[in-house]
Design goal:
Length: about 220
């Protein structure tokens, strides 16, 4: 791709210069009705950008970044581990027991998955490539293939480390209405006025009856 850019750039520069190669370069770029050279150049540029290929390279695009090399190495180790632990079983043909794959390849797959998640976090900040977008298509496709094999084909699972916090937060949210109504009930009960009937003075008629009774 770098050689392609260099060749196209040299032709484009020749068109803009008043030299002997001007007519030749102009005929290469615009002689045909489809302008195939320009069309191909735009196609390769759009494909390169859509695949986020620059995110797999170093800032100067001299080669793969260290993180990409590390990821691809773990990816190859994971596939090799899957293959070595299949025990001669055919994939996708019949439902088989892949317990050996899940047990022996768990550590390699976990490292690959953790590295991919870390690359995603770093890539949002620019990472080694300096392009804060998606990871390059090679890394994303490799991870998608591995996850599909791990979860769908081999029916393996990776324990989620966030299970306990999720359960705790969910339980707290479920108990919030109970706590709210209980506190509201207790608070209203404390403010409830207790009516005390005042002692009334006995009427004069009652006093006369009592006096006549004892007389």
């Amino acid at each position: 791709y770098q050689h392609l850019l260099a060749q196209y750039g040299s032709i484009a520069r020749a068109v803009g210069n008043s030299s002997e190669s001007h007519n030749c370069a102009k005929s290469i770029l615009t002689s045909d009705r489809l302008q195939i050279v320009v069309t191909l150049s735009e196609f390769f540029n759009e494909t390169w950008e859509a695949a986020n290929c620059a995110n797999c390279l170093k800032n100067n695009s001299e080669g793969l970044s260290n993180s990409t090399v590390e990821f691809l190495d773990l990816f190859n180790k994971s596939l090799t581990c899957f293959e070595n632990n299949l025990q001669g079983q055919a994939i996708y043909l019949t439902p088989n027991n892949y317990t050996e794959v899940c047990k022996n390849c768990n550590e390699t797959y976990r490292m690959l998955n953790d590295l991919y998640n870390n690359l995603q976090r770093l890539n949002r900040q620019g990472g080694e490539s300096g392009h804060p977008t998606h990871l390059c298509i090679d890394v994303e496709d490799a991870m998608n293939i591995t996850r599909k094999l791990w979860s769908r084909t081999f029916n393996c699972s990776l324990p989620c480390s966030d299970t306990v916090p999720v359960i705790a937060v969910s339980s707290f949210i479920l108990f919030l209405p109970i706590v709210f109504y209980l506190s509201s009930f207790l608070h209203s009960k404390q403010k409830k006025r207790i009516l005390i009937l005042p002692k009334r003075i006995q009427s004069n008629a009652s006093l006369v009856n009592i006096q006549e009774k004892y007389s």
